[in-house]
Amino acid sequence: MVALLLLAGGDAARAYDAAEQTFLVNVRQGTPLSDRVYKLSMGSYELSGGGAVDFRRWYGQNWTEMRVDFMTQVTEGAGILWGLSSGEWGPKYRIAPGFKLGLILQSQLTPQSSISISFTSLIGGRLREKSCEADYGDIGGVQSVNCRLAASTMQPSDTLKYLVNMKPPDRFWVGLRYQARF
Amino acid sequence: MNNLRITNNLRITSIAALGLVVQAGGASAASLPTFAGATPALSALTVYSWMSPEIGAAWTAGYKGQGVTITFVDDFKSANKFSGNLGTGTQTLRHGEWTRLEGSMIAPSAAIVSQDFTSGRSVTLARGLNVVNLSYAMYAAAGYTANQIGWSAQESSIIKYAAGSAVIAKAAGNDSVAVGAANSSGQVDYLNLALVGKSSAIFVGALNSNGTTTQKASLAWYSNTAGDNLSVQKNFLTVGVAGDKTGLYGTSFAAPIVSGYAAVLGSKFTGASSTQITNQLLATARQDTLTNYSAAVYGRGEASITRALAPKSIQ
């Protein structure tokens, strides 16, 4: 995989080198969108007959989105940052899997200090909330609604405007780092 | 009280606003509670202490009665004024000015129309859902039927609209008797009688507080009850009238809350008919917030705007 990404058309020996120069730089479980879903799950309301609706049944998380980031060094001062996010899903939402790609450049200023600049972009990883089917009985019939707002004062069809549909807020990343050893 | 209606067969001896100015144990005009920290501007949508907390939840997003017209038929002309405080500061207003203010605070986006109850003019309905608030009674001696009353154009129109053209929120009365029964003076509210069995009429009784499952409410001592008539029970609701907080007592101040609820509901379900709005409010009333619930006392129970707005089921 690494070889294909970095050295397409290269020979097996070069691919092996790329793998040798690939390092795990970050593993994280929990992302801004996953946190957002967690917040969506913290709510409830009563149905017209008094039954309780707990949002956790729609937004409860059995699996929290995970990201793994790697750096493949290309030259002494440059590397490719790349990574994968697992995505996450529940009955009423889905965070799509994503692929991160970027670059890091590093310069040795002195024997004891260095500066690096990096940027990454996350492709995919969008959070999409799904709608519910609500039965309002004689007064409103069956309608597609935002699950969370079905009992609000809003017209049922208007609640659909508030379905969460968002890209990862950290999909673009630019970093500047200065390091000194003393 | 005014002597008003000359009829063919029967004279309505008085038309009476159903607000009790000051009750024993309640707040007097001089000692009305203050609402520290409350914002006077209605647009701020403060949930005042006299309101059910449910209405705040109902306001959380978007719609608060727009597209609905509430017509208050009440006293807007007399010299009778009394003091109260709905959280916007102590004011001295006419009865109709109080009920109108209260209803507009529950449904701040509803269009409000005022008609003095002595006008005798037919009530005009606007486009869209209409709610008519009746916080008054029309008394005459007991022993007649509503059909024997020679109603004015005003009441004739209201009674006609109660068959499904408008939601009619009618204060149940403050005589501590069943709706339709004679009070201790031998008088009956014939407007109540005329609305019995009408599909979009709601009789509104007063509770002494907004009930919860842990702090249940009781019927206010003055409030009329639903009684044994199943047609009345079926269309009888109760709401909290927190006179201890506002200085305003009486079922007069219960009906505007239901009028406001109907408007809020109507702004959500824009295609719903008056009868459907009425039925939704009635069908979603709670009994578990009331002390010793019985249909003869509380009718369908305590109105719940949050349940009325909610779906029956969701998947």
Describe, in plain words, how this protein is organized in 3D.
The complex is a heterodimer of chains A (182) and B (315). Chain A is 15% helix and 47% strand. Chain A has a 6-stranded antiparallel β-sheet with strand order 1-4-5-8-9-14. In chain A, strands 6-7-10-13 form a 4-stranded antiparallel β-sheet, with helices on one face. Chain A has a domain at 23-131 and 169-180. In chain A, a hairpin with a 2-residue loop joins strand 6 (88-90) and strand 7. Chain A is mainly beta and 182 residues long. By secondary structure, chain B is α/β, with parallel strands linked by helices. Chain B has a single domain (14-307), classed as Peptidase S8/S53 domain (Rossmann fold), CATH 3.40.50. Chain B is 24% helix and 19% strand. Chain B has helices spanning 53-59, 95-106, 153-161, 190-195, 230-234, 243-246, 255-268, 274-283, 295-298, 305-309; strands at residues 14-17, 68-74, 81-84, 91-94, 111-116, 129-134, 136-141, 167-171, 187-189, 201-207, 236-240, 313-314. In chain B, a hairpin with a 6-residue loop joins strand 3 (81-84) and strand 4 (91-94). The relative contact order of chain B is 0.18. Strand 11 of chain A pairs antiparallel with strand 12 of chain B, so a sheet runs across the interface.
Summarize the structure.
The complex is a heterodimer of chains A (182) and B (315). By secondary structure, chain A is mainly beta.
Element layout with pairings:
The complex is a heterodimer of chains A (about 180) and B (about 325).
Chain A: H1 2-6, H2 12-20, E1 22-29, H3 32-40, E2 44-46, E3 52-54, H4 56-59, E4 66-75, E5 78-85, E6 88-90, E7 93-95, E8 98-110, E9 113-124, E10 127-129, E11 132-135, E12 142-145, E13 165-166, E14 172-180
Antiparallel strand pairs in A: 1-4, 2-3, 4-5, 5-8, 6-7, 7-10, 8-9, 9-14, 10-13, 11-12
Chain B: E1 14-17, H1 53-59, E2 68-74, E3 81-84, E4 91-94, H2 95-106, E5 111-116, E6 129-134, E7 136-141, H3 153-161, E8 167-171, E9 187-189, H4 190-195, E10 201-207, H5 230-234, E11 236-240, H6 243-246, H7 255-268, H8 274-283, H9 295-298, H10 305-309, E12 313-314
Parallel strand pairs in B: 2-5, 2-6, 6-8, 8-10, 10-11
Antiparallel strand pairs in B: 1-7, 3-4, 7-9
